[in-house]
Amino acid sequence: MAREPEIFRAYSFDKWLFIATIVLIVFGLIMVFSSSVILASEKYNQAFHFLFNQAIGAALGLIGIFFMLSIKKPFYQSPHVIYGMLAFSGALLSVCLAMPAIEKTNRWIQISGIRFQPSEIAKLSLILFLADHLSRKQGRISELKSLAFPLGVLFFLILLIIREPDYGTAILIFGIGTAMLYLGGVKFRYFIYLGGVSAALFGFYLFQASYRLQRILAFLSPTKDPLGSGFQIIQSKLAVGAGGLLGVSLGESTQKLFFLPCAHTDYIYAIIGEELGLLGTLSILILFCIILWRGILISLRAPDTFCRLVAAGLTLAILGQALLNISIVLGLGPPTGLPLPLISFGRSSLICTLLSIGILLHISQRKESTRARI
User: What is the DSSP letter of 101?
Assistant: First the structure.
């Protein structure tokens, strides 16, 4: 398919998106240190352990963003890059299953003490792949032969991730893929079949592991087992409620004193609520709303179908994960193990999220030419 004419304006990127991203990174670094300093001192005898590692991830991600902003050629639109990333992420996910278990899961590849979570790059590669396939098959995507390949890729990645096991990320990837297929023009009747197949798949793995059922039961009634399966949900709500309007002040959280598990990762939003109160939690929500706003505008103004779908997919991925994490912290959903993008500790998540934002910012520099609109 011929590329549409466009104009590239270097460093004319979306300033609102860039500023919101920087503020969230700084916010994240502060809260990672605050929520992990005691754990880091106890476990590693180094108070700055988690902050240092998060700062490395932030630096690498920002280098990726500035690299994206400095180049004119959209290499992420090359089929060689897209299919190479897809194959690479699939291979890494397969290798994960053969790696020694870390914390009773096979989610990471560890080399020389450095961990990387391939499911993070799988999200990015899936979005690029679906955008490429859907843009190339415009008008024919609802034909079964055009739809079979992307569905096969989607369920292949889901199966690899769910067997790690990482049920939450598998659900998130399914949601991203479904949303992109809808935006790409797939007819509604296919989603009925897709929903049936996915319900059977996720239902099978839900009942296969008893701890997943326990999480759902704990979400529905956490007080039935307050010292067991309901402990994390109760402690998270206590942390958020203790903060009130302005919080107990930065660094003064009591829940991070080994009361709330995963305080610096999955439940960092609860520590924000305790230390900075409603003002802090609303500030985070506003910043993510800015990302949603600018991401939608970038998608609407993108120069071609591929970029429109990529911008929409990346925006939905970031916001979808953020909303899932926040809803879990507030007790509105069962625990899934998803980090809060740009805030929670985790280099893999931070780097891949920043690379996604780098692509969004690069797309914002690309404008449809006047000649293309005439």
Answer: P
